């Protein structure tokens, strides 16, 4: 099968950052696994992070943690899909990725592709959707009938774009997010944000000017940079969730407010085969329905062309630029 992989850590601009390879087809699916013929993929920060810092020591490693494809075979315990079904999913970081023509994935983290979206549009969604959904409803434990306000740091990125939409559509909260450029502020409003703060300026002053208390804060980027401001903004007994890497934080700044800190890691359920692993299947199906009802929208802003090393390397560069709005997608094989 054709695949895009890497064998050594290189900058995204290096000619060998990613390689077009012919690799052996995966084994026949067993257990809960599906064998999926991959039609489209997208690029996430985790792809760039692994390519830059997780050297596979000369062995090809396939990245890719978003996919849309068609089920071609099922394991003996797989019951959620039939051969020929169109699916979308994010996969698992401890297994080969989706940047390959054929891919094995556990059906419990797979959803049905939204019928109203193209293959490319659907490929922009799984990882960011799961991350945003779990952060809001599993980690921060926001109730569907919640009122008040939520603050989402970084509303124009892939995860932020979905978090803003989910909070707006599935709760009664006032949705406040952050962006610093005219084009990203406009994007956040299009996603459904009620208010957009400028995270290049004093967040505490801006947040207080709104007059909202923030029982819930979801930080998708630059959490360490904004940490002191977030601890000032959060309401007493509030909850703060982050997804970016933090080597050190002054966690004690939350103590006086009895506020809690949570990590969101969307691969945790798949890596540890948790008993509630199938929640990701259910949430992807729920989101597919919401999209078909016109309540949520896709976040693809860049079509990279065919799935190959050069185009995916371009996607890595876009992610690493720190200015990406939404998601970049590649579709089809040459």
TrEMBL record:
NADP found in the keyword field: yes
Listed InterPro entries: ADH-like_C (IPR013149), ADH-like_N (IPR013154), ADH_Zn_typ-1 (IPR014182), ER (IPR020843), GroES-like_sf (IPR011032), NAD(P)-bd_dom_sf (IPR036291), Zinc-ADH_QOR/CCCR (IPR051603)
Highest taxon in the source lineage: Bacteria
PANTHER family linked to this entry: QUINONE OXIDOREDUCTASE
Keywords annotated in UniProt: Metal-binding, NADP, Oxidoreductase, Zinc
Family statement drawn from the similarity comment of this UniProt entry: Belongs to the zinc-containing alcohol dehydrogenase family. Quinone oxidoreductase subfamily.
CDD domains named in the record: AL_MDR (cd08252)
Keyword Metal-binding: yes
Limits of the Enoyl reductase (ER) domain: 16-330
Protein name per its UniProtKB record: Zinc-type alcohol dehydrogenase-like protein
SUPFAM superfamilies membership: GroES-like, NAD(P)-binding Rossmann-fold domains
